[in-house]
Amino acid sequence: MSEEKRLHPISTIISFVKHLKDAVIPLVLLLFLNRGDQDSFLSYMPLIVLGAFLIVILFLGILKWWRFTYRLEDGELRIEYGLFVKKKRYIPFERIQSLNYSEGILHRPLKLVKIKVETAGTSSNLESEAELTAITKEEANELNSIISKAKKRMKGQHEESREEGHALNEGGEQPEDIPEEKILYKMRAKDLIIMATTSGGVGVVISGVLIFLSQFAEMIPYKAVMNELAEVVEAGVLLTGIVVFFVLLVAWVIAVVLTFLRYADFTVKLVEKDIVITRGLLEKKQTTIPLNRIQGIRFNQNIVREPFKYTSVTIESAGGSALEKDSHTIRLLPMIRTKQATPILQVILPDYEWESEFIGAPRRSVFRYMFWNLLFVTLAIVPLSYFFYPVGLLSLILYPFMALLSWMQFRSAGYRLSPNQLTVRFRVLDKQTVFMKRKRIQSLELRQTWFQKKGKVATVSATIKSYIAGSESSVKHLAVDDVEKVLEWYRPEGQLLEEKEKVHQQTVE
Amino acid sequence: MDRREPSTRISERALTVWKLYGWITAGIISLVAIAVITLSIIFDWSNWFIVAAVVLPIIDIILFVYIFPTLKWKRWRYEVREEEIELQHGIFIVKRTLVPMIRVQHVDTEQGPILRKYRLSTISISTAATVHQIPALDLDEADSLRDSISALARVAEDDV
């Protein structure tokens, strides 16, 4: 496969559509503006410009497709492209973390895929990412197997030179050419519907529908509708109720449809040392996460879903694509009962501990959680009550809610230490549980305000790498002794002693 | 309980530099204050403007030239051990940070014109996800620290 190859010609259409999408607003403006005088040459001007524009875009698309070639050579993926200036991008196989597939509407009838090449995502290497817009599935699979084989071979050599014992194992794995696939989780339609119903997206959709309605208020003959209805139903309250219900229903349906588009057929597979997630209805997406890139696991319990014991599980992963915005926190299990999540995770990451018993914040911390939240709310309530005197007093209702939230925050706060893992649990609004291996924690911090010092409590904060930046998890107002314990646990010098002891024990045995 | 509090202080000249920074901002604030006073005399504004324009710069000088730099300097400690770097700083919120050597990816030193004049330098320690700074170290100390950290920092075998 070392000869030069081009993408499937359909990629000209894909890039054409993409450019068209980017330019849609100016184009529409061009069409609808400037429609004054008829029968003159000028009135055809917009159409002529538009036509010329489309032709140029199409032509550029073809040219781009013609200039884009890729080949596999000397253990590198070599891509050459560029309209006027020829650019070359060579990516060594061992730098390639994963190939992510996705299939758009145009891809599917032709059995094509789009491939995103993900590399170790340090900020300086962002440039070394690549995208193959459309190649056939066979080519993609071939590419994938060549790269993974080459990677394996390199790794094998690497390890042989380092440790001879490992070479045997490597050799043992080699003969299986077909990678072992294990389906771990499939999302059912019922789950998708519940997810759509309880997601924050519903709120967004509702406001979207409202905005939409208000925009078109002039076009819809509200008055006529209302008058007619008012004759039938006397109470306006009922009408409002109906309208609200209608809006909610529409919003719900939209949310469900959107969720289905994005998450239909959501499947999690374990393929050798990679997690492979496929999803999507019209556009199929496949994300591959090498297990060794996983930095931590986060359970996020949405406050609406929490009473039903549902949680979402996301992976914090180093690397990931800079081209795809949401790829650094990968939803491994978008919505699942906590009890069901644990067995799946045990298969994927057997060395993690998924226990859920935590050492919480001491009783004296309740006051701290309350105090700051209530103070914060007061800052909103006082001006509201003052400036909107009688009605503004309604904002006092925030107090009990905030007190409840503070109580929940206090109850959620906690940590758990095991020899190699720190698990923290905290709540802002949603309850979060973060599982971190010690060797994945980049730095650990103890924070203490003057007030916290008085109360002998402190905040612990651990940072792991996520994508190209860090992701910080902190638990407030834990007993200072506990935080010190975590700090001591993290201290490498303590670890050294432990390891020495371990080695000693082993030799004794 | 604080048996492991980091021991090394940063250079005393840091205090001088921070005070200098304080004076520079105070100078800028005073200029604004003078402008306000002049304007309020010309346009006959309320006297409160003049009071504020006199009081605020004084408060600023007291806080940012005398009190805060001293507190900050007193709090700042660091210690570079064979396996780890420990930092402690913060006036209102005391932060104690632990960075294992194997997590360190690179170390930089940098100095601006003022720091250079006082032969000081700021050292930044970067891990894969975080950056930690020790401000205003003696130049030679910073350089040798940088070298020793980068010698001690070994590349971790795992992916990040």
TrEMBL record, chain A:
It comes from the Bacteria. Residues 65-144, 264-334, 411-490 form the YdbS-like PH domain. The keyword Cell cycle does not apply. InterPro entries: UCP026631, YdbS-like_PH. The keyword Zinc does not apply. Residues 153-175 are annotated as: Disordered. The chain crosses the membrane at residues 44-63, 192-217, 237-261, 369-387. Keywords: Membrane, Transmembrane, Transmembrane helix. This is PH domain-containing protein. Residues 156-167 have a biased composition (Basic and acidic residues).
UniProtKB/TrEMBL annotation, chain B:
Coiled coil: none annotated. The chain crosses the membrane at residues 20-42, 48-68. Keywords: Membrane, Transmembrane, Transmembrane helix. Residues 73-149 form the YdbS-like PH domain. InterPro entries: YdbS-like_PH (IPR005182). It comes from the Bacteria. This is PH domain-containing protein. It comes from Jeotgalibacillus marinus.
